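Retro notes (design track)

What went well: tokenization of the new backbones is finally stable.
What didn't: we kept losing track of which sequence belonged to which structure.
Fix going forward: every design gets posted as structure first, then sequence, in one message. First example under the new rule, 589 residues:
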């Protein structure tokens, strides 16, 4: 195993040149993966990750335009693959491609399948090129790979791949590929995405070798070590500026709102942050116990750790202030995570985990709430969570499957309103264009707009959630994995809480049905309409201190009503559309 000589130095210019070269490799991998993919979840939403990892399982770089929940877990994928292979007595060889998706061996959850290409230089293993991506079906009990909210264990969530060599020394394992096509719905699309991942990972391996051949292995390793030390130093410096102490917060998941079992509803996430010099401990003790037969449990490695690292990096090392810090494993060294086994944040196999998405966002949001006690100007108020919907149906003998990410919203921030209708925290995916949806699937988008009067009032208002209505043009099915229908995003520093989301079938007509935030696979008739209303972020600061002109602008943009302007912000707007400053002054006093 190749390591850097103790104390070996490298000049900073060379280190930065190699940093740029490594980052460009990951960016190229990402662009080419998106261009080669078949599904909209990768092509349009960019729900994928690409990274290079060294022989010590440390991440060297990641694709900047992919989601943190895909790129962040990649070192864990490699650790899991190596652990399993060591237990089996297996070894890496030049030409291998390893497929992996075990949520209890580093993967984020089953549908996020990783493809790992070991990189050899002069016969020596020097690292790994890895791509991950969300796949639209992995052979679970119902169509799609999200909304499987009724899986009773890990085996019900779909096919499990634990360090499977799909290429062995360059030779394709045809039997594995036959098994994939035989057990996955919409297999042409899914297998096509997998092949795109492999091609992108091979590109990454080739480019990494080109860098090593140009600069020399010792120089590249020394540069990587220097860059990780720099990232660690920056994170430690940011932590050291904070006052030592213990800071705690609680958040809550909807859980299963329609369940008769109270142990499956309103589930607590507890976060305690301890700052001691340049070290930080994130303790999740007090979090609700795992649910043995429902899949909202979160893998500690692959989901919980990524939610924590992403939140800390975003808040403490804001790129607008610090510039672009190298994204590598050095950033995580000052942080220790404590998560008792058997809880939602560290479940015990075979507890299911496929629907861990919304849960992990609550972990990130609750950590931010705890940090608000020490860095109040660097956090937002409570964040509106996302919903993920799987649509599916049969066209002859073949399935069509589509996954839609219903964006959330951010809370207000110091000096800025919350962002409207965006993917939040560790998601960072993009919405799918209506034209793409309607041209590929028997679905029609009747309504897609910002929510009226939805944001939490504040000096800086919360972001608005969105409203989307989808009609079925043919008999189909749908399933929903959502959060934020029972617990509103928190307001901060005098700001009001945001608004919860909702879900309904056939709204506004006879037979309308209100639905909970999690729906297992359900049939829909031709002509049925599903309405989704996303949560809106919490407000930041006293609403009565909001600039009256900003309140007027929100009324003119139809973000809020004149009544809300009067009742929440104390701003009186006349029929002429102008502010009555005298009346406003009286109300605000």
């Amino acid at each position: 195993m190749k390591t850097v000589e103790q104390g070996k130095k490298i000049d900073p210019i060379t280190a930065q040149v190699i940093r740029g070269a490594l980052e460009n490799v990951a960016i190229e991998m990402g662009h080419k993966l998106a261009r080669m993919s078949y599904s909209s979840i990768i092509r349009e939403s960019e729900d994928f990750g690409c990274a290079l990892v060294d022989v010590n399982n440390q991440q060297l770089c990641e694709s900047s335009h992919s989601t943190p929940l895909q790129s962040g877990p990649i070192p864990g994928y490699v650790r899991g693959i190596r652990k399993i292979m060591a237990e089996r007595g297996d070894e890496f060889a030049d030409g291998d491609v390893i497929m992996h998706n075990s949520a209890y061996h580093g993967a984020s959850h089953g549908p996020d399948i990783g493809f790992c290409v070991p990189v050899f230089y002069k016969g020596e293993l020097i690292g790994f090129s890895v791509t991950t991506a969300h796949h639209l079906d992995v052979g679970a009990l119902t169509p799609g790979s999200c909304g499987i909210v009724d899986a009773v264990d890990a085996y019900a969530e779909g096919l499990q791949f634990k360090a499977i060599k799909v290429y062995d020394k360059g030779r394709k394992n045809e039997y594995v590929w036959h098994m994939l096509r035989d057990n996955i719905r919409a297999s042409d699309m899914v297998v096509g995405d997998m092949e795109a991942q492999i091609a992108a990972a091979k590109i990454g391996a080739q480019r990494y070798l080109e860098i090593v051949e140009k600069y020399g292995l010792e120089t590249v390793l020394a540069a990587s070590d220097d860059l990780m030390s720099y990232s660690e130093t920056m994170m430690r410096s940011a932590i050291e500026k904070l006052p030592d102490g213990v800071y705690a917060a609680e958040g809550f998941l909807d859980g299963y709102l329609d369940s008769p079992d109270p142990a499956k509803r309103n589930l607590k996430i507890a976060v305690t942050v301890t700052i001691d010099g340049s070290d930080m401990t994130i303790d999740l003790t007090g979090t609700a116990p795992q649910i043995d037969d429902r899949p909202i449990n979160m893998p500690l490695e692959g989901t919980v750790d990524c939610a924590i690292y992403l939140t800390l990096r975003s808040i403490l090392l804001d790129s607008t202030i610090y510039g672009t810090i190298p994204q590598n494993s050095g950033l995580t060294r000052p942080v220790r995570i404590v998560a008792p086994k058997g809880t939602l944040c560290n479940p015990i196999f075979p507890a299911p985990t496929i629907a861990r998405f919304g849960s992990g966002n609550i972990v990130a949001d609750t950590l931010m709430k705890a940090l608000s006690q020490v860095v109040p100007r660097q956090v937002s108020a409570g964040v509106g969570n996302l919903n993920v919907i799987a649509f599916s149906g049969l066209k002859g003998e073949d399935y069509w499957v589509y996954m839609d990410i219903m964006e959330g919203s951010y809370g207000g921030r110091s000096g800025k309103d919350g962002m409207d209708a965006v993917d939040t925290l560790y998601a960072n995916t993009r919405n799918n264009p209506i034209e793409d949806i309607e041209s590929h699937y028997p679905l029609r988008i009747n309504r897609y707009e910002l929510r009226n009067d939805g944001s939490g009032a504040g000096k800086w208002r919360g972001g608005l959630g969105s409203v989307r209505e989808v009609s079925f043009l043919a008999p189909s099915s749908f399933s929903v994995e959502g959060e934020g229908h029972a617990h509103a995003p928190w307001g901060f520093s005098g700001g009001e809480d945001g608004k919860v989301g909702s879900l309904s079938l056939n709204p506004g007509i006879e037979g309308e049905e209100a639905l909970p935030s999690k729906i297992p696979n359900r049939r829909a008739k031709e002509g049925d309409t599903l309405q989704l209303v996303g949560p809106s972020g919490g407000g930041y600061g006293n609403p009565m201190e909001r600039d009256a002109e900003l309140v007027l602008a929100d009324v003119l943009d139809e973000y809020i009503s004149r009544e809300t302007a009067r009742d929440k912000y104390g701003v009186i707007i006349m029929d002429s559309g102008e502010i009555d400053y005298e009346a406003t002054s009286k109300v605000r006093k």
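Added context from the reviewer: The mean pLDDT is 95.
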